[in-house]
UniProtKB/TrEMBL annotation:
One of its GO terms (cellular component) is cytosol. Residues 12-198 form the B12-binding domain. Its cofactor is [4Fe-4S] cluster. It holds the Pfam family B12-binding. GO terms for molecular function: 4 iron, 4 sulfur cluster binding; catalytic activity; cobalamin binding; metal ion binding. Residues 212-441 form the Radical SAM core domain. This is Radical SAM protein. It comes from Candidatus Abyssobacteria bacterium SURF_17.
Length: 465
């Protein structure tokens, strides 16, 4: 579908949409449609007018007006619960005895948002987890009803990891893979023409947060990609190279969020925030402290513990790091090799000690421990949990998600007898229900983790004798 107009100076409009999530559970942990905001910024830089509709807007009046348990709720620190509606479970998830939900603003509110804005010339939709494609397809269908003639393009993580599936199941006019800044502008030029704007370097853009309403936190990147290549991870498939942004540019962006957007909470979405610490994170944090930028930083993604020496721990504390989650993943040799040796047991222990000395109480330091990785024994998970507990970190268990294209995927498909062509089965909370015995085992491990965690917190709060 090509809709090139004749008027060269007419401003073309791009509408960017963050779609609904279909899942058994979803929690807003500083979730922002960061990729979509980069793409919107690129469109603006190229001379297009851009607007954004966020179906996951927790603070949307229609989401907070709902009565009952499915109302959106906001918790301190920029997190919260999405509003939701229970929907039918897809056939292949019938074995999972849980309610399936559509998370996001009520459908009528979305229709209203679509039809009350200016008519777009093209629409871009993002996608995140592969197993959330049902929400993407539903979003596309609603958009189609309102704008039957407007070209729709899909990008994002799911589009990149499962492009053929997306072409077949989502109903967009085009599916673009990989970083979308340049590709989306090319799509716009081709489909709707226009664009006299000067295009800035894609790696020099700032996400278009000014287009997002109801902002109670911000997510950002100080780097793109990851220098490692762990067997279960898709980072390299999403971005081939690892690039760290210039320190000054990163700190200016943080200052903009704090001083102009008045945000108190910033989450880093980096895959490898602490890589090359002397040249990157340390100077960033020193500059944040020097400029007196008062903000809470969150690292919901696992941090590389080996990089946290005494100085970095002190800088993190002084700069306002509030959520500190370290990747431990496992303590077994073969598993650590699959994780590219990015964390060693000594390194992990040292990091917790350094963070504690810098003033973090143990309840503030968390360790991601993986479970359900093909070939992983229950005893391995237990060992890792006990190790994290012993050195003073809270245990946060993370269920394995088989991701197409990763080194682990084929083994996972064989081990767990999965249909490789069905992304719904890649949901980390689905797998334990499909594999006989796995759910019970995981429940037991989760209970054990809770016991260890409460013991750690009690130990810390007990009065000294
Ligand atoms: C931040 C993050 C999280 C956060 C927040 C996400 C949330 N609240 O749901 C937290 C830590 C909570 C999280 C949790 C999990 N995550 Co996560 N997460 C990420 C991460 C690191 C960054 C995503 C991101 O925003 N990147 C930055 C933006 C700029 O990139 P982008 O979205 O890809 O956008 C670019 C392109 O895609 C494209 N694009 C994007 N939109 C559009 C739109 C158009 C129109 C176009 C043309 C282009 C385009 O252009 C953009 C700019 O270049 C990715 C890894 C990664 N490198 O992407 C994993 C990732 C998405 N997560 C993953 C996993 C496995 C998980 C967990 C299951 C881990 C676990 N075992 O518990 C959980 C599950 C959470 C859930 N709710 O289901 C997997 C994906 C799994 C899957 N099957 O899809 C990834 C890929 C990491 C991996 N291990 O490989 N995650
Ligand atoms: S270090 Fe983290 S982001 Fe990088 S490849 Fe390994 S798991 Fe993925």
């Amino acid at each position: 579908m090509s809709l090139c107009y004749d008027l060269p100076d007419m401003i073309r409009r791009a509408l960017l949409i963050a779609p609904y999530i279909h899942d058994f559970s979803a929690y807003d942990l500083w979730l922002k449609p960061l990729g979509l905001l980069y793409v919107a910024a690129a469109a603006e830089a190229a001379g297009y007018e851009a607007s954004v509709i966020n179906c996951l807007d927790r603070l949307h009046p229609a989401a907070t007006a709902i009565r009952g348990p499915n109302r959106a709720r906001t918790e301190p620190g920029g997190k919260g619960k999405f509003s939701y509606e229970t929907i039918a479970r897809p056939e292949c998830l019938k074995q999972v005895p849980r309610k399936f939900k559509r998370y996001g603003i009520p459908i009528e509110a979305f229709r209203h948002e679509l039809s009350s804005g200016t008519r777009p010339d093209a629409i871009g939709i993002t996608s995140m987890m592969t197993y959330w494609y049902g929400g993407v397809a539903e979003t596309v269908a609603i958009v189609r009803e309102v704008f039957p003639e407007t070209p729709i393009v899909l990008g994002g993580v799911y589009a990149t990891l499962c492009p053929e599936h997306a072409r077949e199941h989502v109903g967009a006019d085009a599916v673009l893979t990989g970083p979308g800044e340049k590709a989306f502008v090319e799509f716009l030029r081709h489909e709707v023409g226009g664009s006299n704007g000067s295009q800035t370097r894609p790696d020099n853009l700032r996400p278009a947060y000014h287009l997002l309403r109801n902002l109670d936190s911000v997510s950002m990147l100080t780097s793109y990609g990851c220098p490692y290549s762990c067997a279960y991870c898709a980072s390299r498939l999403l971005r081939r190279t690892f690039v760290q942004r210039p320190v000054g540019e990163v700190v200016d962006e943080i200052a903009y969020y704090v001083e102009q957007l008045r945000t108190d909470d910033i989450a880093f979405y980096d895959d490898a925030l602490l890589a090359n610490p002397e040249a990157h994170i340390k100077p960033i944090l020193r500059e944040v402290i020097r400029r007196g930028l008062n903000v809470r930083f969150h690292a919901p993604n696992g941090l590389h513990a080996n990089m946290i020496d005494c100085e970095l721990a002190l800088l993190m504390r002084a700069a306002g790091f509030a959520t500190v989650r370290l990747s431990l993943e496992s303590v077994t040799r073969e598993f650590l090799t699959d994780s590219c040796d990015k964390v060693t047991l000594e390194g992990f222990k040292g990091a917790v000690a350094n963070l504690s000395s810098a003033g973090y109480p143990p309840g503030a330091i968390e360790a991601y421990v993986m479970m359900g990785v093909p070939g992983q024994r229950l005893g391995d998970v237990e060992q890792a949990m006990h190790f994290a507990h012993k050195v003073g970190a809270l245990v946060r268990l993370a269920d394995f998600s088989p991701i197409p294209g990763t080194k682990c995927f084929d083994t996972a498909v064989q081990t767990y007898d999965l249909n490789p062509g069905e992304p719904l089965l890649q949901n980390s909370s689905v797998l334990p229900h499909l594999v006989p015995g796995m759910w019970g085992e995981h429940q037991r491990l989760k209970m054990r983790a809770r016991e260890l965690n409460s013991r750690l917190i009690r130990r810390e709060t007990a009065p000294m004798s």
